[in-house]
Each structure stands twice: as C-alpha cells, then as structure tokens.
Design brief:
By secondary structure, the chain is mainly α. The chain contains 13 helices and no strands. Helix content is about 75%, strand content about 0%. Helix 1 packs antiparallel against helix 2, helix 6 runs parallel beside helix 9 and helix 9 runs antiparallel to helix 10. It is globular, with a radius of gyration of 18 Å. It starts with a helix and ends with a helix.
C-alpha cells in the first residue's frame, strides 16, 4: 500500500470519526474509488484508534481528574460506570455478530442506504427532539447511558455512524448537544479499543510488514486530523445543530447509489 494513500485514508478517518457522517462509510467508499483492497477491514478498523487517541489527549485533564478521585468520589464512580453500561450492549452484540459485520463492510449498497436513512433520522431528531434536561456528560444517569449504548449498536451497520447513532440516542434521552457529543467521545474510547483489540487478535498473524507500516501512517494522520476537528465540531453543533451533516449524509449516500446502479443503467 502506498504511503500517500495510507495518509489520505487516515486523513478521511480523522476528519470524519467524530462527525455524524460515518467515517467507516467514507473510508470504504474512498477505498473502492481508489481501488484499495482491505480484506477483513483490518486497516479501516485499526486506524480508527488513532482518532480515538485524540479524545484522550483533548479531554485528558477531565478524564485524569475522574480517574484520580475514582476510589473516593461517588460522582467519578458513577461516570465510569455509566460509560461501562453504555459500552456493554455493543461489546456483547459485536462479539456475537462480528463475522456478519465484516461481511456487511463489503456491501456498498447497505452502506449508502444506511447513510441516507441515518441522515434523515438525524435531521428529524435534531428538529423535533425533546427539550434537554442533562447538560453534563459526566453526570448522566444509568438509564440514559444504557439507552445511548443501545443506539450505538445501530453503528454495527456500516454507514449508520457510531457518532451519529449515539448523538441521536442522546437527543432522544434529553441530553443537550454538547454533553451528548462529549459522552459519545468518551464512549468511543472503550468501544473502538475493543474493536481494535478484537480485530488485531484475529488478524495479527496474517499482517505483513507493509501493512503494519500503512496502519501506522494512517493511525498518526487520523490522530492529528481528529485533534483539529473535535473542538470546532462541538462549537458548530451548539450553534447550528446537525442539519448540515444530515444533508451531507443523504448526498453522499445518494451519489454512491447512483454510481452503483445509475451508471450501469446508462
């Protein structure tokens, strides 16, 4: 794999991982257009951890403070447990249907339809969501955390977007946009670490030195790109909402379906 291609895909991953547009869909579509073969989705899954590392860096102070007081402060234990509760549904279901998820990665029609359906759902929920009651991402109750975690399971369908699904779950649970986005970031840490570990254990023996090099380049570029995107994204959604991202999803999904079916019909 050419280093420049690995860097380009890493850039796409970092710019889209935390936007509700599905980084996986954008990566898979780009890989198809660039004729890049990624058997089993190893490269696609593994470079996502680079973007997740950006969350740890940007929110390190808050996360470290929570960890430091974990033994003696009930609020910190409650936050940690809320993330674990939200993480568990995807962890359990992901292990059970891991093979099926890998097969869906190869189906561009599913990806494009999921982009459109998810975009329409994001627009509707953004427009008609109930008034927020929760404004602190570290103080969500367990029921709200579980509901967000259940919505995250929708992201197992490539194109639905892990970020988009959890943000929809947050809005429906009366979590405001900033708190919902931050909780989605925190939830991404164990979720993507688990996906990375599962994929690495499954495939590390078959990876070549060239693949490791490409993954390393994609990982670093994804990390740097995500560092640039996360904070402006939170500010943007607080002022403008998710309408732009919903429209983007529909356009990309529609363009993908046209390329798949429309050009063949011409």
């Amino acid at each position: 794999m050419h280093n420049l291609l690995a860097a380009l895909l890493g850039l796409i991953e970092g710019l889209t991982e935390f936007l509700p547009v599905s980084s996986t869909a954008h990566l898979l579509i780009a890989e198809k257009l660039l004729r890049f073969s990624d058997p089993g989705g190893n490269f696609t899954v593994m470079i996502q951890l680079g973007a997740i590392l950006a969350v740890v860096v940007l929110y390190f102070r808050r996360l470290w403070q929570a960890v430091n007081v974990l033994p003696g402060k009930a609020e910190a234990r409650r936050f940690a447990l809320s993330v674990i509760i939200a993480f568990l549904p995807a962890a359990v279901i992901g292990v059970i249907i891991h093979k099926l998820i890998g097969e869906m990665f190869e189906n561009l029609t599913i990806i494009c339809v999921a982009l459109i359906v998810g975009g329409l759902a994001l627009w509707l929920v953004d427009k008609f969501a109930p008034k927020p009651e929760y404004h602190d991402s570290m103080q969500l109750n367990f029921r709200t955390a579980l509901l967000i975690g259940l919505f995250q399971c929708l992201a197992m369908i490539p194109g639905m977007s892990r970020s988009g699904s959890t943000l929809i779950g947050g809005m429906l649970s009366r979590v405001d946009k900033k708190a919902g986005a931050e909780f989605s970031f925190f939830l991404a840490i164990p979720t993507m670490l688990g996906a990375f570990t599962l994929d690495f254990v499954k495939s590390y023996k078959s990876l070549t030195s060239d693949q490791y090099g490409a993954i390393a380049i994609g990982f670093v570029v994804a990390f740097l790109a995500a560092l640039v995107v996360i904070k402006p994204f939170v500010g943007f959604i607080q002022k403008r909402g998710y309408g732009f991202f919903a429209l983007w999803r529909v356009l990309v999904g529609g363009a993908g379906l046209f390329l798949i079916y429309g050009l063949h019909a011409l």
